[in-house]
Design goal:
Layout: E1 6-10, H1 16-25, E2 29-33, H2 36-39, E3 44-47, H3 52-61, H4 65-73, E4 78-81, H5 83-88, E5 89-92, E6 105-110, E7 121-125, E8 135-139, E9 144-148, E10 153-159, E11 165-172, E12 175-178, H6 189-198
Parallel strand pairs: 1-2, 1-3, 3-4, 4-12, 5-6
Antiparallel strand pairs: 6-9, 7-8, 10-11, 11-12
C-alpha cells in the first residue's frame, strides 16, 4: 500500500512528537506544520491532542486558520486525535464563544466528556477496519461525539457514565477522528487506517 508522500503534523501545541515518531516507524515522511508555507507542502495532516482552545487561538494568530480551512475544503486528508477531533468537528457543544472549529467532519462533539484530568482512563476498543487485537485507547480529558451526520461512519463506540454508547472513532471521506491518543501506545494501526484512505 502506497501512503501519502509527506504527512504534516500540526505542531502549534500538544503532542506532535509521538505522532511524528509513529509516522517514521511506518516509513512515512512526517513534518511539523507551524506556518501556511509548511501546510502547503503536505499531502495529509495529523491534528494532535493538546488543548483545543489554545490550538484554535494559535491557528488564528499564526495565520494558519484560513489556509487550513481552504485545504480541508479542497479535500486534504486529516486525522484528528482528542483535541484534533474537537477542532475538525462541525460543531462544539461546550466550546468557548471565540473558539474556532474547522467543519471538516459532520460530527458534534463535547469537550472533556468523561471528566477532568483525574478521570482519565484506558480501554480496549473494537475498531471497524482495524484487524487483530482490540485497540488499546488512552482517554485524557477526552471529547465524545454527541451526534454524527448521515455521511459519517462510526468505527468505534464506548459507553458513557449514563450507559449510552457514543462514538469515539469516526470517519467521513478522507477525514478520521478519534477521542483518544493512539500515539501514546505505539500502536500504528489507526495511523495506517488513516494513511490507507488518504492515499486514495
Amino acid at each position: 500500500m502506497a501512503y501519502p508522500k509527506t504527512v504534516g503534523v500540526l505542531a502549534l501545541q500538544g503532542d506532535s512528537r509521538n505522532h511524528l515518531a509513529l509516522l517514521a516507524d511506518l516509513g512515512v515522511t512526517g513534518v511539523p506544520v507551524r506556518t501556511p508555507e509548511e501546510l502547503g507542502k503536505v499531502d495529509a495532516l495529523v491534528v494532535p491532542g493538546g488543548e483545543s482552545t489554545a490550538i484554535s487561538l494559535l491557528l488564528s494568530t499564526g495565520g494558519l486558520l484560513g489556509p487550513l480551512r481552504a485545504r480541508l475544503d479542497e479535500g486534504l486528508p486529516a486525522f484528528g486525535t482528542c483535541a484534533g477531533m474537537i477542532l475538525l468537528a462541525r460543531e462544539i457543544t461546550d466550546g468557548r464563544p471565540d473558539q474556532h472549529h474547522l467543519d471538516a467532519i459532520d460530527v458534534v462533539v463535547r469537550r472533556n466528556a468523561f471528566g477532568r484530568q483525574v478521570d482519565s482512563f484506558e480501554a480496549d476498543l473494537e475498531v471497524t477496519g482495524v484487524g487483530g487485537d482490540p485497540v488499546h485507547a488512552v482517554f485524557i480529558r477526552a471529547p465524545v461525539v454527541e451526534s454524527a451526520g448521515a455521511g459519517v461512519d462510526v468505527l468505534a463506540t464506548i459507553a458513557g457514565a449514563d450507559g449510552v454508547d457514543r462514538p469515539v472513532v469516526c470517519r467521513q471521506g478522507p477525514v478520521l477522528v478519534a477521542s483518544f491518543h493512539p500515539e501514546l501506545t505505539g500502536d500504528p494501526r489507526l495511523h495506517q487506517l488513516f494513511l490507507e484512505r488518504a492515499a486514495g
